[in-house]
Each structure stands twice: as structure tokens, then as C-alpha cells.
Amino acid sequence: MNGSDPVLVTGATGFVGRAVAAALAARGTRLRLLVRRGSNRRNLLGLTSAELIEGDLQDANSLGRAAAGCRQIFHVAADYRLWVPDPATMLATNVAGTRAMMQAARAAGAERIVYTSSVAALGLTADGSPASEATPLDPAALVGPYKRSKYLAEQAVQEEAAAGLPVVIVNPSSPIGPGDIKPTPTGRIVLDAARGRIPAYVDTGLNVVHVDDVAAGHLAAADRGRIGERYILGGENLSLGALLALIAYAAGRRPPWLRLPVTPLFPLAVAAEAFARLSGRTPAMTRDTLVMARKKMFFSSAKAEAELGYRPRPAREAIADALAWFRSEGLLR
Q1: Which of 7, 27, 115, 255 is deepest in the core (most CB within 10 A)?
Q2: What is the pLDDT of residues 277-287, one digit of tens each?
């Protein structure tokens, strides 16, 4: 790739996209960022030399303008919510938008594309042991529109790779850290736990990773990833109780001690969803999240560690950086 060629990043106003763009900028990369008109651009404040192209994943012409002349493209943009009133909007962004971006990358003659998928598109083991990229997945078992959309989007990218597009897929787990302006569903757990707003928990588990490690994994995938392959970019597997305890101790609070069974919570989830439809607020609990909580969402990053040199840091460091950033934003007092 010519050193003067711009590198396109989509989703840089968001959480993971900001981290990827910042990592590239630290390399001295000439950045081009696709941004939606009217989007919150606070995460771009440190990227003053980047070229901004206004556009949208639903606007193929804008994608063509953004990709033109770029030999390397990081497609990070996605609709990441665990509950949406209308799943069609999420499918349009995550599936149709991803397909359109891959087509724009092909037309631009990009030499390397990194697509940000998710562990949501991967299978889980029956016994709760860490899943890998090769763990079987039954598409009918996918829970919720986000998981379905990321699975379908990844299938579309794999079709493009089979047709010769030089794309590498990365599957981040649950990133936390600086720049989570919305915040994301995982960031909301960190923020609420630090505020003492999670008095109880269910017996589930997830894989937590520092967002800057995810960004480093993206760059390693661009440098050393094999075309058509996917790589889990995870960190530490933790039970939800252990995660909440780490957050509570870091925030100077007592951790929650009450563990609740999942099944009796379903009527509350139905009520929370009904209220969300009326109020426009995101529900604190949904039926989909309760179904997902029945399984431990543990993953192994062994493939990325072996092939990309990926080295994630401990979860406590990610938590500390996330809390420091939330404090700097005035969200923790």
C-alpha cells in the first residue's frame, strides 16, 4: 500500500471505531472517516488531521466516494443494541449496509479490508467452556435481532471473500474502556454497577476485553490476518457476579450479593419492554437478554494470539480505564 493512500474507517464516531482510528493515527496513517450527517462527533476530537466524508451505509454513492483511492478499509460501523423496537432498521444497517460497503471496497480495488463482526455471530459450547471460531452454530438458536444481524452480515462478508475480496473478519467480545459515549450495552453494565444500580445478578458469564486491545487486534488482522479467516478478539472470561465485583471494588462500593434465578424474571422483562415502547427508553431487561443469560458466553482468543500476536490485558485494567473515562465525562461522581 502506498504510504500516501488514505485508510478508510467507518464507525469512528462510535466506541470501537474510535479506538481503531486512534490506533491508526498513532501509526501516522492518513485517515479518512465515514461519518453520518448530524452524528455526535465528540470521539473525533483527537483526530484533527482526518478527512471526513459525510455519508451513510444506506447510501451506496457515499460509500463509493469514501472508499475511492483507499487500499485499506476498516468497516467497523454497526448498530449495536440488544433491544430495538423495529428490527428492520438494524438489519438494514448491519446486513445490507455491510454488503454495500464490501461492494464499494471491491469497486475501489481495496487490497485489504477488515470487517468488524462480533462473537454474537459465533456458536456457544453446551458445557460453558470457551468457544472458538470453529464452534458449531445453529442459526435457528440465535437470540435477538442484533445476533441475527451480525450473523447474516458475516455470512455476506464470507461470500465476498469466497468471490475473491481480500477481507479478514474479526469478532470482538464485550469491549469496555474509554470513549463509550452512548454507552454500549456492556458499558452500561459498567456504569450502572459503579453507580450501585445493580443490586442483584443472574448466573451468567461473558468475555470482557479492553477496547484498545480490540483496536490493536484490528491492525494486526490487517497486517497478518489470513484472507477469509475470522479471529476472536476477546479478553477475560468472567461470571457476571465476578465482573460486577471487580467493578464495585474499583468504584469503592460493595458488590451485589443477591443472585436471582432467570425464569421468574420473564414477566418483569415483558413489562420493561412494554414500557420501553411507550417511553422510547431502552429497557433495563428484555426477554432476549434473559434467554442469552442461560448460557455462559465464554470465548477463546487462542487463534488470534497464535496468528496475529494478539495480547489482551486483564479485565481489571479495562475496568479501571472505563471508570476513569466515565469520571472524566462527569458520569461518575
Answers
A1: 115
A2: 887 777 777 88
Annotated domain spans of the chain:
7-179+210-236+298-312
Element (H, E) at 61: helix 60-67
239: Cα separation from own chain's centroid: 19
Asked if 194 and 320 touch (Cβ cutoff 8 Å), the reply is no
* CA separation for the pair 67, 112 (Å, rounded): 12
The single-letter DSSP state of residue 92 is I
How sure is the predictor about 3, in pLDDT bands with cuts at 50, 70 and 90? low
- Residues whose CB falls within 8 Å of the CB of residue 32, separated by 6 or more in sequence, listed in order: 6, 7, 8, 9, 50, 51, 52, 53, 66, 70
Residue 78 to residues 11, 96, 98, 102, 209: CA-CA distances in angstroms? 7, 11, 8, 14, 18
Query: Of 3.40.50.150, 3.40.50.720, 1.10.645.10, 2.60.40.780, which CATH number belongs to 7-179+210-236+298-312?
Result: 3.40.50.720
Q: Please, what is the average pLDDT of the chain?
A: 92
Write out the H or E segment, with its range, that includes residue 113.
Answer: strand 112-116
The three three-digit cell numbers of residue 9, written as one number:
474507517
Q: What is the 3-state secondary structure (H, E, C) of 289-333?
A: HHHHHCCEECECCHHHHHHHCCCCCCHHHHHHHHHHHHHHCCCCC
pLDDT, mean of residues 46-72: 93
Asked whether the beta carbons of 128 and 113 are under 8 A apart, the reply is no
What pTM value is reported for the model?
0.93
Query: Which distant-in-sequence residues (6+ apart) come within 8 Å of 48 by Cβ?
Result: none
pLDDT tens per residue across span 83-106: 788 889 899 999 999 999 999 999
Quick check: 38 and 73 in contact, CB under 8 A? no
